[in-house]
Structures are given as structure tokens and as C-alpha cells.
Amino acid sequence: MLRDKLVHKVLRIPHALHVGVDRTGADIEAPTIVLIHGLARTHKVWNLALKDLPSSSRVIAVDLLGFGESPKPDWRSYNAEEQAISLHTTLRKCGVTGDIIIVGHSLGALVAIEYAKKYPARLKSLILCSTPLYKSEPRYVFNKFKLPDGETFYKSMLRNFREKPDFTKKLNYYARRAKFIDEDFVVDDKNMRSVVRSIEMAIENQSAFEWLIETKVPTSLVYGRLDPYVIKKYYKTLAKHNPNVAVYPIVAAHEINRSKPYADAVRSLLFAQNPEV
């Protein structure tokens, strides 16, 4: 613990992430595909999608800070920037020097966007699944006309999750028992701090929408029509105003684990937009 704080907190050396999958590609010139999971998940959410990803590309799937087998320092803020820096450190450690394509799910999509902001040089494209986009709208409009804020429900739900950890853990436990969510979607004492801080620092406080409205990076946004965590109008706005952003609605909910529609969408986009992979 002391050494961890000295090396990473005092000296500010980024943590490296646990690499759960590092599959060699047949073509060394093909871009590396990097997979980033969502909140309270691990690299294992990509197991179904991995079966159909291009064999020509190297594929790397990581565990984000605070989850899976990656470090879980209690002093980290767990914002998207920290995660992106650790991802960059990890890719360098893995010897990735060529172009990369990042595929992110939920929280992982926000981390992918932050990576694109900080390290655009070799980023070929983004494929973002179930991205929880929230933007700040002028408060005076809602105050004047007493209209509900379009994000109020979503942000209050997230706030309840992080402010009531015992409730969140119980809800997660019973949802897993009832098979409403996957068995490996676990929120417990081991990762509760990471979950709480990730919700507040990465999901609630974000500028992803503002970046997407102006980005030049080819970006595909995939979302489920049954997803309760995304605001569909934001996706439509992005598709309308930025030609570099394409939106693909599919018949699915939020979770990507064992979701064939998401796996099919990711595979199709990789082949269609990057035929060399």
C-alpha cells in the first residue's frame, strides 16, 4: 500500500491495467482492436464478441482501474481521464505502436472518448456501445417554464446508486439471483468505492456529448432501443450535426455481455469501416 502511494500518487506514475485478453493478429500491419468494458464489469463481457472479431487484428481487452484484476487504489478519483492515462500506459507496455480501434461499452465508451481527446495520433476510429451521454442544458429555461429537465430521472437514479451503497449492493445481489442481470455483473465491498466514484466522476460529470458534436474521429454509436440508460434524442442530434458520427440503433437493452445484436453490430462495423482488419 505504501509503495503503491509512493510510486503512483507521489511520483504520479500511472497504474497499468490488467490485460485479460491479448490475442495476436495474423497481419502485423492491421490496427489493434482495444476492448473496454463498462461499470462493474470486466474484460469477460466481450467473450461473445471475441469469437467473431477479425483474426487479422491483434485484440486487447482490459479491466479498468477498480474492476476485475486491475489495481483498486482507494485514493484514485476514477474519472475517465485517469482511466484513459492508464489505458495508454498499458498499451505502451504491451508494445502497441500502430493504429488502434477502440470499442467501448457504457463507462468504457466514456473512457474511449477521453483517450481520443488525449491521444488522437494513432486512433483510427471509435465504436461506442450504450454510451450514457448527459449534457448540461440551460437551467434558466427549466426554471422559467417549470419544465422537467430531460436528464433529471437519469442523474437522480445514478445519484441514488452512489449515495446508497447498501441499497445498491442489495439490488445488484437480488437482480443477479433473479437473473435480471448477468452473474458476473457484481457490485460488492471489493469494488463499491470504484463504482461510486466512477458514477460521479466519469458518468455524471462528463463532456462527451460536446466532444462528439465536433470530433473529426470516425465514430460509430451503437445503442439498444430498449436501453433505459441512454437519452435517444442526444444520439439523433449527433447524427444530424456531425458527419463523422454515425448512429446505429439495434434491438437490445444496455448490457453487451452475451448480446448477439451487439456482437453482430461490432463485427459488422469493424469490417465495414475498416476493411483492412
From TrEMBL:
InterPro entries per record: AB_hydrolase_1, AB_hydrolase_fold, AB_hydrolase_sf
Bilayer-crossing regions: none
Keyword Hydrolase applies: yes
GO terms for MF: hydrolase activity
Pfam families: Abhydrolase_1
AB hydrolase-1 domain span: 31-250
GO CC terms, sorted: membrane
Statement: the UniProt record of this protein carries the keyword Signal: no
Keyword field: Hydrolase
Name used for this protein in its record: Alpha/beta fold hydrolase
